[in-house]
Structure formats: structure tokens, C-alpha cells
Amino acid sequence: MRTLFDITPLHRSNVGLDRVFDLLEATAQRQGDDFPPFDSIRLSDNRHRLTIAVPGFTEDEVAVSVHQGALIVSGERKGEPQGEYLHRGIASRVFSRRFPLAEHVDVVGATLAHGLLSIDLVRDIPEAEKPRTIPVSVSPDRAEPVRQIGRTVA
What we know:
The chain is mainly beta. The chain folds into 2 domains: 1-31; 35-82 and 89-124, Immunoglobulin-like, CATH 2.60.40.790. Helices cover 12% and strands 34% of the residues. It is built from 2 helices and 9 strands, in the order ααβββββββββ. It has helices at residues 8-13, 18-29; strands spanning 38-42, 47-53, 62-67, 70-75, 95-100, 105-113, 116-123, 146-148, 151-153. It is rod-shaped, with a radius of gyration of 27 Å. The protein starts with 7 loop residues before the first helix and ends with a strand.
């Protein structure tokens, strides 16, 4: 698929920045993909909530899944309401929205209330990867000055 701008020449001159260019290209390809609207909320350093507007959808018409490091939210209406529309302003089209997840981010729950789908995300860094402080102690053989015949060396 062709993007709005070609960044291929930049790939040749910047070794090691492939991920940045991939993200730029993916963003350029997604332009126009703004349905359904969403809010991203930071609840704390390690907790986030993604709130997606899905008015008129029920819990069996919305699917939330995680696949290959991405959160995928999709929806499809299963039936038409009774009656004849005089005006149709609430979008009810089929949608699929993909959100890339950072490392160590897990989806811990999803709730649908009042037309808003809230998805809770938690970043759980393994203990082995967390920064830790190493205590510095005095070496036993360096605790006291070394004495040589005739003088003291520290």
C-alpha cells in the first residue's frame, strides 16, 4: 500500500531507526481511521484505561481481543431496530480498531456501560527487568590502611 509520503530514502541513511520509521509509516496509513472515537486515560504510572464510544452496541456485538502485541476492538450490529428512520445520526457501521500495546502491558478487563466500552490496561514489568540498587560495601582488605615498613599507605 502506498503512503502519503515515501520515507524509503531515510531508511538507507539511518541504521537502527527502523522501528521509528515503521511507526511513522503505520500512522500515515491509518489516516481517516478515526471510528469509533476513543479516550486514553492514565490512571496511575502502571494503569491506563481506554474508553471507546460504541453507542447502540450490546456486549455480544462488541469483541475485544489481543493478538501479536496489539489490542483489537471490533463491533458489528446483529439486527436492525424496528421502525423507519427519519434521521440516522448514530453510527452503527461495522468497525475494527487496532491499538499497539507496549511491552509488558496486559488487558485486565473490559466493561460496557452507557454506550462506552472501557478497557483496563496494566503494565506489569517483571521483577528481573526492574531497576534495582546494588549496595556498595567496603572490601574487608581495604577497611584499614595497608602498613609497610616505615610508612602507611592508604
